[in-house]
User: Which sequence fits this backbone?
């Protein structure tokens, strides 16, 4: 796309670097630390998620109220508001079970690769398998409800 | 003072790390207007190799390149921490079947629920989105129950 030149990808990369460094610095990239939080042995993770949400909250509020468009893309600043349906709850239940079993979530898993935690590749493989399974199933269901099946 | 029993490792590392995570998302948002979540990468990346319609919807195909860059950034940023602060690689003791099984559930759940800890938890809550707050409350409660159940039946780590 025309608005996606070097500056666009550089901004994404720099943001990703800070994001990943933060995940490692906070120790959230270590499944043990997440499990210790969920088992009420160390509640520090509250400050990770709380601190991050406060920053995005302030920045989103300021940008949507005082600025018009992002400089690189010209995109309008908006808040992240997704529609609510049953899947939001069902997905939350399934994700919660997985997070509680493994102590790992997507962003933290990528950061965990970066800190040299090679066994986390089990979790990364699992996440791709899970995402593939639900995508395949949902595409099938969409096909059958829409009439004649299309090739996939 | 905050109880040492609730925060045996203090709060500085957690708070600083959290502010940086929010800061990374803020840099991307301010520069591009994009609200970055980590879990869509799982589906959008599958569109490179799979013809399944779900992965090849326009929002996935048009965002898959920058999502790869974002994820590489996360890996590299964590790598910088490992080299400069951690003193080399760190590996988990959590058993492989927990990582694999949990990972599968995370892959299904985050995509079904439209987001994960970063999309809903950081950006959605930061947007005061009711959908995100419901999702976060749900996954938090279930995760606490699951982790405590697994611990109670004697699996460690």
Assistant:
């Amino acid at each position: 796309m025309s608005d996606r030149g070097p500056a666009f990808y550089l901004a994404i990369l720099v943001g990703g670097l800070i994001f990943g460094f933060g995940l490692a610095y906070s120790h959230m990239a270590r499944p043990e630390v997440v499990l210790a939080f969920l088992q009420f042995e160390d509640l520090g993770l509250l400050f990770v998620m709380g601190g991050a949400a406060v920053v995005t909250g302030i920045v989103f509020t300021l940008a949507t109220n005082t600025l018009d468009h992002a400089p690189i893309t010209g995109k309008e600043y908006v808040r992240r508001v997704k529609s609510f349906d049953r899947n939001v709850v069902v997905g939350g239940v399934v994700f919660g079970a997985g997070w509680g079993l493994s102590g790992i979530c997507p962003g933290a898993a990528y950061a965990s690769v970066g800190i040299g935690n090679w066994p986390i590749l089990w979790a990364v493989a699992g996440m791709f398998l899970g995402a593939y399974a639900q995508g395949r199933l949902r595409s099938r269901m969409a096909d059958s409800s829409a009439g004649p099946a299309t090739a996939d | 003072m905050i109880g040492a029993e609730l925060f045996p490792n203090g709060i500085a590392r957690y708070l600083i790390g959290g502010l940086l995570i929010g800061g990374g998302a803020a840099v991307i948002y301010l520069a591009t207007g994009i609200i970055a979540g980590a879990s869509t990468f799982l589906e959008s990346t599958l569109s490179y190799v799979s013809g399944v319609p779900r992965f090849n919807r326009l929002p996935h195909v048009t965002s898959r390149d920058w999502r790869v860059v974002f994820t590489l950034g996360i890996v590299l940023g964590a790598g910088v921490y490992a080299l400069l602060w951690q003193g080399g690689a760190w590996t988990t003791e959590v058993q492989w079947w927990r990582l694999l099984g949990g990972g599968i559930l995370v892959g299904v759940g985050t995509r079904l629920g439209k987001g994960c800890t970063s999309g809903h938890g950081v950006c959605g809550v930061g947007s005061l989105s009711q959908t995100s707050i419901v999702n976060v409350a749900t996954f938090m409660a279930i995760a606490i129950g699951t982790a405590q159940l697994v611990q109670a039946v004697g699996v460690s780590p």
